[in-house]
């Protein structure tokens, strides 16, 4: 299995997550609530770093390398922000997201679906 295949699988996961959030936006609120507890938020930062490494290592094997590089950089920045802002600040941001309307949460699902589709196409 090549690195481009791993990137495609990640894209498929994004599409799946986007579909779930579109159909049931409450799932996003539950997911956020789970990661707000204790130090779990740092796990999200770690996942983002892992995604960044995978994307940056796989970019040269992908159809549209610059797109994968951009996503890798964005994942790196977002992972870094989780650690730089700290758990308290990130949790307050997550609290804000949990208070948003179902329409906005569905929009986030649509964005996740679109990002997944772009990743799949670019890989």
Task: Outline the structure in words.
By secondary structure, this protein is mainly α. The chain has one domain (3-122). Helices cover 86% and strands 0% of the residues. The protein contains 5 helices and no strands. It has helices at residues 3-23, 26-36, 40-58, 65-98, 102-122. The longest helix has 34 residues, at 65-98. It is globular, with a radius of gyration of 15 Å. The mean pLDDT is 93.
Provide a quick synopsis of the model.
The protein has 123 residues and is mainly alpha-helical. It has five helices and no strands.
SSE layout:
Elements: H1 3-23, H2 26-36, H3 40-58, H4 65-98, H5 102-122
Helix content: over 70%
Number of domains: 1
End-to-end separation in angstroms reads: 13 Å
- The low-confidence parts are none
Largest sheet: none
Number of strands: 0
What overall form do the CA principal axes indicate? globular
Q: From the helix content, strand content and strand pairing, which structural class follows?
A: mainly alpha
Mean of residue pLDDT values: 93
- Number of distinct helices: 5
- Beta-strand content bin: under 5%
Give the ordered list of helices and strands. HHHHH
| Gyration radius over CA | 15 Å
Give the oligomer, counting copies of the same chain as homo and different chains as hetero.
Answer: single chain
Question: Characteristics of this structure?
Answer:
123 residues, mainly alpha, 5 helices, 86% helix
